[in-house]
Every structure is written in structure tokens, then in C-alpha cells.
Amino acid sequence: MPRVRIVTYNIAHGRGLAPIQGMASKRRIRATLLKIARLLADLNPDVVALQEIDENSRWAGNFDHLEFLREFGGFEHAAFGINNRRVGLLNLNYGNAFLSRHPIVEWENIAFGERSVGEKGFLFAEIDVHGRRLPVANMHLHYRSKLHRFEQVDRFLGYLRDRQRLRHEHWAVPPVVCGDLNNTHKGSDATATLLSHLHDYGDYTLHPREGRTFPSPLPSRLLDFVFLPPGVTAVESHIVRTFLSDHRPVVVDFQLP
Fold it and tell me: Cβ distance 97 to 66 under 8 Å?
């Protein structure tokens, strides 16, 4: 049975622990991203889901962060889902992304709206892991509004229903869902709602089961999650103690059926 490791990580545009975006120089951002690439290489994941990663943004050094991490992290495959596109003097292009050691067979990006600053969305990919088709969704929800998060979860669930009708016979398991949900797993917010609806596809589990990911120096909230589908076994998860972003990465290991 193939063993799979997934990492989800909000890298905060490469600014490290700088409190305001744009305060870090291009040299500083490249140095931070190089450390992130080395961290990812040491963790040796099969798939990395990244949030707040820039394609070409003035506030983040005007270079492709995904290609930088792909090259220096030693990954063969990548997919970029841009949710913000703004050209001109203050260009701003960023979103979510995947790095993978396995072929990304197909992928699609969905932005929740059309704002040029602060827009969120999700990136859906099907990855060929040793001949098994693994569907993975990487999402980033609204940071402030519970109502917006509920609307975004509804949009994602609608997409997932349509996708399952078309593709589910090719999947080894139902989709792995991960990312920065910008709320905890308790109560009636989007994380709990999403988990409840994912149970329509079977007995999903939420990881990590304990710990906190934000803010990274002294974390007080758990915002970053991996939802694992039924059928996977031998699950292990942990949060990595690192200060290369305002979030800490989550690592989940499992076996495909």
C-alpha cells in the first residue's frame, strides 16, 4: 500500500515574521523562501499545499515563488492557482499552489470572487501516486467574516459534487481537503460545517487532532487542517515548529487502500 505524506503551509508571501507585507526586501524574501524550500526537502512530502504564494507581486519581490520553491525544494511538478490578478505599477498576483513529487494529471483553480486584493479560492488537482489517482483540494477561506466562510464552503461543496459525478470512478479515495480555513475546528464555523458535509462521502477525519498553528512564535489558534477521506489507514499527523511564516505547517502521513 502506497505511503503518502501531505504538507499544508501558509507561507505568508515569503515575508517571514515581518508584520506588514512589503517591508521585507527581495533579498530577504528569497532568503526566507530558500529556508522554506530546505524545510520542505527535509520533510520529504509527496504533496505540498501552499497558501499565500506569489506568482509576480511587487510587494513580494516580483518573482515566481512557486518556481523558486520547486527548484530549490527538489520537486518535479507544480500547479499554481492565482486568485488575485492586478497588473500595472502595483502588480499583485498570488493564490494557492501545489508542489508534488508525482505527476499532476489535471488541475483547476476556482476563485471565490473577483477582487484584486485579498481574494480567496481553492485549487483542485488529481495526482498520480504510484498509479493511483489521488484527488486533493487546497483551500484558503476568508480571514474575518464567518458569513463569507460559509458561502465559500458552499461553493466548494457544490464544485465537489459536480466533480465527483464526473470523475469519482477514477479516484483511489474521495478527495483529501486541506488548507488555511481561518477558523478553529470547534463550534459552528466553516471547519465544522465542511467536516459535517464531507461525511456525505464517508467517515472523514480532521487533522491535526491537537496543537495550534497561528501565530507561529506563540501559537494560540489552530487554523490549518487536513481532512482525510475514508479508506486511508495508518494515519499520523503533527505540526512543525518553525518560524518562517506566521503559520506553522501541518504534516499528515497515511496509506492509500
Answer: yes
Residue type, 208: P
| Total residue length of the chain | 257
Domain residue extents for the chain: 3-255
- d(C-alpha 2, C-alpha 127), whole Å: 13
State residue 215 phi and psi, 5-degree precision: -75, 150
The predicted model scores a pTM of 0.97
| Yes or no: domain 3-255 corresponds to CATH 3.60.10.10 | yes
Q: What is the mean pLDDT of residues 104-130?
A: 95
| pLDDT tens digits, 30-65 | 999 999 999 999 999 999 999 999 999 999 999 999
Half-sphere exposure in the Cβ direction for 56 (13 Å, CA)? 6
**How far is it, in rounded angstroms, from Cα 10 to Cα 15?**
11
| Cα distance between the two ends of the chain | 6
Angle in degrees, CA 130, 132, 136, rounded to 5: 110
Q: Omega into 135 within 30° of 0, i.e. cis? A: no
